[in-house]
Amino acid sequence: MTTEPTTQPRKRTGRAAAIAAFLWSLTAVPVGLWQLLDPEGGPFSHELYEPTFTLPAAVPAWAAPAALIAAGVLGLLAARARPRLWPLTALYAVVFGMLLSTTSPIAFAGYICAFLIPLVVAAVPVMLARGTAGRLVAAAAVAALLVALGLTGVVDYAAVGDFLQMLGARVAEIGAYMLVQVWIVAGGAIWAALTLSLLLNGRGDRPAPAWLAPERAARWGRAASWTAFACALPYGLVRMTWLTPWAWTGGPLDSSMIDPATRVWGLCLGFAALAGGVLCLGMTYRWGTRWPFWMPVVKGRPVPPKLAIVPATTVAALFTCVSLPFVALSIRQDALEMVWAFPFYVWGPALGAATLAYAIRRGVVEAR
């Protein structure tokens, strides 16, 4: 006699999604009021705001913020929706996750990753060193290298300081706008998580589909992980051409036309994309569940599931939410090469599927 596998998320996961949706809906009301009371200075009137779809001119300016307020009020009820009302939460996920989002969050996230790459490279030797003495020696070697780069003029730390000052001022200038953009993407992710929870919890005593069993999830999760990895290659490899005399930026470009600052940022962005692609594979291989042998202190120990699931889910939500705005922007700017260089429309869902499979295998979504 055989039994069908049944799959359900932990109850606390579904409860967390419902609470997050409720709190997000609460914040929708003041955001809508902000735009309604300050139509010129509101977050949806910022110079950087470039909506995927624009409303007809006949629609009054107050209609959109009023609709946002109404959606926030309705969301307070939808957050406690029964499983059969999952189409409503799915609608929230699509509207806020894909229709109201813009490309600003992905640009902001990309530059943050590029900024962190040099810091990570500098920290890796210290992290891999064995023992206190080894770490001190590695830290001293890294510090000596940084000093040498400054003294030889390879790195102009004064210029780096000026750049960071300029970047900080720009971030402060657009901080409120960017915060609202992140809020929109977070809303899409929260409502998508609640929808998934309702779908899985709404099965009652019926057996879950066989593909949600851990052994099945391992197979389709591996395909999803490799798909996500492949999506990281176009942009990462294009940026790696900047290390050669045959640079490519959507077309051949004389390397002399790329100034050093642009070259450094481009390469950092490329390395960030490739590193993210490699981390996608951790969702399906052993080093994603147990720390590899070359990691000091923690080697061989289980990787905490949330350490992989939380950032992977965040990135998957971000990529999925910006996919439609990014394609629309590429078409408007007649830059169709960006559609294949940044395949977020495949990358985000593939990474999300890989993360779900990983969560099933690690028991965060339980199969029994």
From TrEMBL:
The chain crosses the membrane at residues 16-37, 57-78, 85-102, 108-129, 136-160, 180-202, 223-244, 264-287, 307-328, 340-360. The keyword Transmembrane applies. Keywords: Membrane, Transmembrane, Transmembrane helix. This is Uncharacterized protein.
